[in-house]
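Repro:
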Amino acid sequence: MMPFRLTLVQKMILSFAMSGVCLMAALTYSITGMGVMQRIEQDIALTDIRSTTITLRLRELMAAQERITGRYRILQEAQYRTIYEQNADEFRREMAQLKKLYASPTMNDLEKQYRDYSAEVARLFGGVPSDPQRMKVIGEQILKHIDTMSAEQRVSLSNKLAVSEKLEAHTVTRSLGLAFGGVFCSFLIAAWMVYSFARSIGKLQHATHLIAAGNFDHDPQIPPGDEIGALSEDFRQMTIRLKELEQLSLDASPLTRLPGNIAIERVLNRNLREKITFAMCYLDLDNFKSYNDHYGYIKASEILKEVGRIIYDAVKQLDDPDAFVGHIGGDDFVVIINAEKAEAACQAVITAIDTVVPSYYSEEDRTTGAIEGVDRYGVQRTFPLISISIAALLCKPGDYAYASEIATAAAAVKDRVKESAGSNYVIIREAVRREA
């Protein structure tokens, strides 16, 4: 099973996603922390500061009431009673407000003590004898309760401020930590990507140098799964193709530049392996040796090169993308083509050869239509102009097992075609079996 690997795009998305998640977490944590701190500050402003202010006001009002009752006890003037009642009403209102904001057992004790104090004051203003010492003691207890609540409020306020400061420090620290963590992760992934990319490119560069030196078997060994892996696989396929092309180039005829015997055999075996119906055309020039003897090897090489070009162009004009033209050697050529286009290929080649070949003879020989020469047995005789004989075998799946069988059968048929004068072709549609 192929190991899972992220593509470059997926790695970039992961990097941005991790950074975005960390930054969003930092932002969320920061906003949450700020919300908590805001609630604490609102609680301090609406509860602690107000309750502290009310407590201080209660102390002022209580001290004022003690002064008023003391003066009334001495001067017995009615106006002090009015002032006291106004002061006492305000004290009760403030105490009621404080009770809403500040829940404490001391608050209950304060209410009880103030009721006792108000009762003593009522006896004083009503002309009933009252104990000044008892009123003083109750007043001192009320102030003590107020001071106790004031101290409790200061402790509460101090604690809330400490919590707020601690929360603020944690919020800032963790938000920055998450933010920098996201940035660090992004840089880490980016560094990893750059490293792996540079390492893979380095391997490909090294492989390129080896291929340039002719080592087509080198494998960069880059794992598949991402774009670099895909590029490496394409690169490997390219080296395989380059190796094949090199073999074809070494095998190709230096004169016609057409593929040679190795390529011809490879194409035949591939068609046999893939069970393709095709035509294998064996082409042989007639009277070429006499031309070579008469005009020399340079002119003979020129006509071979031209014949190779003519055959290649004639076949390619038939629009068969799988058509193949090869040069066995000397004056022998091969065309492998779609079976339905075999006859058209033979006719096109013969027409082109018969049109072009006479131009390679002298005017006298063209007029005569032949040249004088000596055959392979040393006998002086007259040789017609160069023509071409084509033996085309239609190869269907199952007719032949090996490329060598097709080559042998085509050679046998070609010899029969050469018995006829001029350019000729024959198409054999049944398998040719070698006689035992």
